[in-house]
From TrEMBL:
Residues 43-249 form the Haem-binding uptake Tiki superfamily ChaN domain. This is ChaN family lipoprotein. The lineage of its organism: Bacteria, Pseudomonadati, Bacteroidota, Cytophagia, Cytophagales. Residues 1-22 form the signal peptide. It holds the Pfam family Cofac_haem_bdg. Keywords: Lipoprotein, Signal. Gene3D superfamilies: 3.40.50.11550. InterPro entries: Cofac_haem-bd_dom (IPR007314).
Length: 294
């Protein structure tokens, strides 16, 4: 008993010494659009009431990938038989392979050899597909085949007009409207130098981005049946500021209940930096020195 009291006394002394007390090192924090801290459970409750959730990730951020897996697990329980997982990471022409893998018809090796998975597939996206296969909810690839985005970046959307009908089926219906004044696209123009000498080239790059946004929005809507929740994973820039994919979803279906998440990095996690306010309905903040997956 005396020995135990001595140990407790020493511990209390150590805690009283400045700098010796342990401090929390949270790996992430969640905030509302207005910058108020929010719990994971409160966020999940709100997401479960939506029809479409766009989880904007930084592709090399391990915390975003881990949290995506947690969100999928929770929503699969809350929306039993009603969850659909959509992925920017797979293009529409490999959707038959995604479906075959999802139903167990296609083994891992064959799927990975044929579906053009991203380099970080094994660590960041494979666990999601395996979970979907185990729990029997659908997975859809929504992105435009990259070769068409490349064509548009070089020659504009008009480059798609001569495609065969079977290839146009992998795209959003043509013609695609592009609003160059949308904040995301206007920011791209600034980044790429939208002066007169480069105007056409920059507009083509923005049109390629719009092709991706419009195509993902189209297949999100096509893949979701009434009563279902479609959780879509995409790079944050495709849905930040309720822009990009969100804009195209709203054009087609103004009353669709959409929630967005954006992943950002900050030096501090105590409050949301001003530039990250209202970036999404929920903002996932990760420490700036977090390890990257690549």
């Amino acid at each position: 008993m005396i020995k135990r009291r001595i140990i407790w006394a020493l511990a209390l002394c150590l805690l009283a010494v400045p700098g010796m007390q342990a401090q929390d090192r949270p790996a992430y924090r969640l905030f509302t659009a207005e910058g108020k801290p929010v719990s994971f459970g409160t966020m999940l409750k709100d997401l479960a009431s939506a029809e479409v959730v766009l989880f904007g990730e930084q592709h090399n951020d391990p915390m975003a990938h881990w949290l995506e897996l947690q969100v999928v697990k929770e929503l699969a329980q809350r929306k039993t038989g009603q969850l659909v997982l959509g992925l920017e990471m797979f293009e529409r022409d490999v959707q038959p392979l995604v479906q075959q893998y999802n139903t167990g018809e296609l083994p891992d090796q064959a799927f990975e050899e044929q579906s053009r998975p991203w380099p970080n597939y094994a660590t960041d996206y494979k666990p999601l597909l395996q979970l979907a296969r185990q729990q029997k909810f659908a997975v859809v690839g929504t992105n435009v085949p990259r070769r068409y985005a490349s064509q548009v970046a070089k020659g504009g959307l008009s480059a798609l007009e001569s495609l065969p009908a079977e290839e146009k089926a992998w795209l959003a219906p043509l013609p695609i409207t592009v609003d160059f004044t949308l904040p995301g696209y206007a920011n791209m123009a600034k980044m790429f130098g939208g002066d007169a000498a480069h105007a056409v080239g920059v507009q083509n790059i923005i049109q390629a981005q719009a092709l991706k946004d419009a195509t993902m929005a189209h297949f999100i809507r096509q893949s979701r049946q009434p009563g279902q929740l479609l959780l879509h994973l995409n790079g944050s820039y495709h849905s930040d500021n309720h822009d990009g994919i969100v804009w195209y979803l709203r054009q087609a279906e103004p009353t669709l209940r959409i929630r967005t998440i954006s992943t950002v990095t900050q030096e501090q996690l105590q409050k949301l930096d001003k530039e990250n306010l209202r970036k999404a309905d929920f903002v996932l903040v990760v420490p700036a020195d977090m390890t990257k997956t690549y």
